[in-house]
Amino acid sequence: MRQVWVDGKPSQQIPVDDRGLLLADGAFETFLVREGTVMYVDEHRERLARSLGVLQFSTPQQFAQGMIAESAALIAAVGTTGSARLTVTRGSGPRGYSPPVDAVPRSLLSFDPLFTPNSAPLTLGWSTVKWPDQPLLSGAKLLARTENILAALDARQQQVDDVVMCTQDDRVCSVARGNLFLRVADTLLTPDLSTAGIAGTRRALILNRFAKVAGYHVTTASVARAQLLAADEIFVCNALWGVRPVARIGQQQWSDFAASRALAPLLDPEAAVTW
Amino acid sequence: MRQVWVDGKPSQQIPVDDRGLLLADGAFETFLVREGTVMYVDEHRERLARSLGVLQFSTPQQFAQGMIAESAALIAAVGTTGSARLTVTRGSGPRGYSPPVDAVPRSLLSFDPLFTPNSAPLTLGWSTVKWPDQPLLSGAKLLARTENILAALDARQQQVDDVVMCTQDDRVCSVARGNLFLRVADTLLTPDLSTAGIAGTRRALILNRFAKVAGYHVTTASVARAQLLAADEIFVCNALWGVRPVARIGQQQWSDFAASRALAPLLDPEAAVTW
């Protein structure tokens, strides 16, 4: 059963004047939890600090550090395996866009026991929803997630697991629920996120650490639709899925999951890999 | 003192699994209330329906109609003058971007007694925050308001009343808190909102009704920064301010407020106009 804490105390409600609710004034992180341990806590702390910095919270590093540490402690006390989400809002405020000068950020942590995560290869469609072109916010994981919601509806309508989302100028950016990697021979490419998208913690780990360990060159790139379809292998990554290969986009199919097989256990030794 | 209702009942709290809070999955309207009457209720209902339609709520027209009617009734029972905000979220849901198939939207209505609204001419700066380029969502008034928040912080830092926000390709779009109109001789222009911005109810009223009554031609246009500064008059409109002229942007000053003077009492006969 889900457990929820608001500012570290069990609660099922938040105040109606919360700026996260009224204006999407906040950010969040989704954690994979293994037996009470938040996986990759440093990467989550760093990205949360970046997101809060984009929103000009007064001391983003301190807020991120304090709230991630508190979350890790609450989750450790539960002690089981599951998924968790930490939401940080600007807290309560009066009417209007302008945040209070003395805003007191609010944390909302929820923990869900994880059912056997489905790691089966993905069937993707192409989303009709494009990312906004917004370099100022790109990479951050903010509460404002309208495009992801609409893309998820798009995936439901197309009866696929997820959809490829492009930028306004029609470059491949991500799927609704994670980042994309392409393998071409021994090189991994992931879309450049300078104008749109969320910079995933697993994306960063593959770029900075695990691609090399698995024996691949890795780089960020501008990726055209045709280039995606011409890749030798495609996989998606996020905190809960880890690495999950793509089996099909439209009529195009893939069955060589070499990079996915190499990376999945590096990211998550407990990952249930069936391919 | 502020009064708040959740789904029509007095409340100060909402559930922690509300998708408006977690993913900005919702929209809102801000009402001017005169002695218990929501001003321009038809325009607000129409825009709310459009916003909920953009979010693919199942029956946006019905939700908007029902929630606006309920809000108007609650506000009528209070019977005083003030401002109100109706927030409509997708309601509660499980983890993830995908809305529940049977989502039950939630309404959150707050009413604040209005202090004497400041209608003094505005001093504006130029925002460093640009609107995202996103034709799909343009015009709607969604909960995802990150750019408006950052622009409001920008205005605070520049010590101005508000800031002019441009599009990614540097065309004038709006201010953080409302829409912009330029007057050039007998013609009013307001920026085209095909790629960014919120289509204000007062903007629509001026375009469709009041400009003509006041004796002006009116049109939407692509507006360059230099064109804004070269205008004979500039004014801002929103639900609470009505029409408010611009006295200064940087070193440029204006003192001819003819169109503002003609339009302000048409939009709001009770408007406190001192210029």
UniProtKB/TrEMBL annotation, chains A, B:
Per UniProt, the keywords (alphabetical) are: Lyase
Q: Which GO terms describe its cellular component?
A: cytosol
Which EC number(s) does UniProt give? 4.1.3.38
What Gene Ontology molecular function terms does this protein carry?
4-amino-4-deoxychorismate lyase activity
Enumerate the Pfam families for this protein. Aminotran_4
Q: Which domain of life is it from?
A: Bacteria
Lineage, broadest ranks = Bacteria, Pseudomonadati, Pseudomonadota, Gammaproteobacteria, Cellvibrionales
User: Family per UniProt?
Assistant: Belongs to the class-IV pyridoxal-phosphate-dependent aminotransferase family.
The reply on keyword Lyase is: yes
Name under which the protein is recorded: Putative aminodeoxychorismate lyase
Q: Where in the sequence is the signal peptide annotated? A: none
Alphabetized InterPro entries for the sequence: Aminotrans_IV (IPR001544), Aminotransferase-like (IPR036038), BCAT-like_C (IPR043132), BCAT-like_N (IPR043131), Class-IV_PLP-Dep_Aminotrnsfr (IPR050571)
Q: Decide whether keyword Lyase is in the record.
A: yes
Q: Which GO terms fall under biological process for this protein?
A: 4-aminobenzoate biosynthetic process
